[in-house]
Amino acid sequence: MMSIVVLMGLTICALYWWVNNYVPLPSRSKKKKEKPKMGTMESIKFLVSSRYIRDLATLVVAYGISINRVEVTWKSKLKAQFPSPNEYSSFMGDFSTATGIATFIMMLLSQWIFDKYGWGAAAKITPTVLLLTGVGFFSLILFGAPLAPAIANFGMTPLLAVVYVGALQNIFSKRAKYSLFNPCKEMAYIPLDEETKVKGKAAIDVVCNPLGKSGGALIQQFMIVTFGSLANSTPYLGGILLVIVLAWLAAAKSLDTQFTTLRQEEELEKEIERAAIKIPVLADNGSGIGSILIGAPALNPTEGDSPGSSSETSTPRNI
């Protein structure tokens, strides 16, 4: 396995060298706009001042914390179920295969979901999946003993059931992120004006992405210090996850309303531009008075007029 890793690394190095030396780069006529450099405090002030960006930031932070919380708890149960390295590697191989299949299917379904149900439904799928699988995952952890006889009918122990449900949660939540959550996040910037769009992205990159990644770890450390172990803090982690996902769904609903309104305004502006009235104005006919014709076809030269005369030819102009 390590030989394959080394071989793939050397292949990447060779391809990188070949691209840099033999593949011509496309020329760029326009200078790329520089991203505004915003400090932490400035980014926080901008997030607080804009409801739209604040809701979008809530989505990013909630996803980062939720995934971290679920993945850490699941991996602790996974190691307890498969203490042997061979068994652990075998299960992770099956997990990776299932993840690849789920990714392919979700990529095919994502465009259909956007076309049929719209941005709002697509944005709510990821937190809904996390909510449903999270309830099942933490319920099996907390109430595994009373449910053991029922679970035994399926040939599983409560711990194995927790591992399988956690695997499903990680597979579908992460695949939903790449096929639905990320496209929804990028589409949300489209109807914004240029200044809000650029500053919003900068603020989310400065504050929300690091907060989402580190927030889950901070919560975990606080719970372990407070309750002594990860197992003792599991019920409270489940409650925190529930609150975060509900806040995520509320932010997605609020953002859907604002996003739909902005897109409707954008479409209305485009309709007004397309329906703008063009008024052709005829050139001066020699008498000092110009003829104006609204919504009529261009006039043909009258008898005796010179078709080639520029003073007699109508020239349309938008008013």
Give the gist of this structure.
By secondary structure, this protein is mainly α. Helices cover 75% and strands 3% of the residues.
Annotation keywords:
319 residues; globular; 3-stranded antiparallel sheet; disordered C terminus; 8 helices; mainly alpha; Growth Hormone, Chain: A
Strand segment count: 3
For the record, the CATH architecture of the largest domain stands as Up-down Bundle
Strand order, sheet with most strands: 2-1-3
Radius of gyration: 30 Å
Structural class: mainly alpha
Largest sheet: 3 strands, antiparallel
Distance between the termini: 72 Å
- Give the helix level as a range of percent: over 70%
Annotated CATH homologous superfamily of the largest domain: MFS general substrate transporter like domains
Mind telling me the CATH class of the largest domain? Mainly Alpha
User: Shape from CA axes?
Assistant: globular
Number of individual domains: 2
Name the poorly predicted regions.
Answer: 288-319
CATH topology of the largest domain: Growth Hormone, Chain: A
Strand content: under 5%
Give the overall average pLDDT.
79
Oligomer: single chain
Order of helices and strands: HHHHHHHHEEE
Helix tally?
Answer: 8
